[in-house]
Amino acid sequence: MRPMRHAPLLTLLLALGTPDAGARVRLGELLPSHPWTSGEREVVVVYSHDCGDLGDLWGAVLGAGLPVRAVNAEDVPAPAPKGVNVWRGPEATAFARALRVGAYPTVLLVREGRVLNAWEGNFGGNLGLVGTAGR
Q1: Are the beta carbons of 30 and 95 closer than 8 angstroms?
Q2: 5 C-beta neighbours (distance < 10 Å), count
Q3: Residue 111 sits in which domain range?
Q4: For residues 1 and 70, what is the distance between their CA atoms, to the nearest angstrom?
Q5: Do β-strands 68-72 and 86-88 pair in parallel, antiparallel, or remain unpaired?
Q6: Mean pLDDT throughout 69-98?
Q7: Residue at 8 is within a domain
Q8: 3-state secondary structure (DSSP) of residue 34
């Protein structure tokens, strides 16, 4: 019997869980104005300087195999993984506020510029994978 393997996007969705009923980001809405050209599917990470260690979150997001857009809101620079372009400044903060982000970090799964799924809050690092200790 072969071990079950999860697709990277499925792993990301399992890691993020289901949207919180209290989430303010509205599913199906178009993203507010932004500086990138939207792809068919992409992940948008909206975060701030006071999110703490986002290593597990970045690992899950980058492992999904989709383009990643990083939005560093609230005017205090915070790092992102090497190779990820970060949008910072007042326009990035305005983007987060126009989305009605309720908590940082917020991860959006976007299809053709529309929010398909949203997750807000702290990431516990559990990707929902069985038998992959040490990964």
Answers
A1: no
A2: 9
A3: 25-120
A4: 40
A5: parallel
A6: 94
A7: no
A8: coil
Q: How far apart are CA 54 and CA 79, in angstroms?
A: 10
Contact indicator for 107, 19 with CB cutoff of 8 Å: no
- Give the Cα separation of 61 and 12 in Å (integer): 6
Q: Which residue has the tokens 């990083």?
A: 70
Looking up residue 61, the CATH number of its domain turns out to be 3.40.30.10
User: With bands split at pLDDT 50, 70 and 90, how would you rate the model's confidence at 121?
Assistant: confident
Q: Provide the β-strand partners of residue 30.
A: 114
In a domain, 11, yes or no: no
| 17 found inside a domain | no
Per-residue pLDDT of 36-60, as tens digits, reads 998 899 999 999 988 878 888 898 8
Cis link prior to 105 (omega < 30° from 0)?
A: yes
Residue 7 belongs to some domain of the structure = no
The total number of structural domains that make up the chain: 1
Report the alpha-carbon distance of residue 87 to residue 97 in Å, rounded: 14
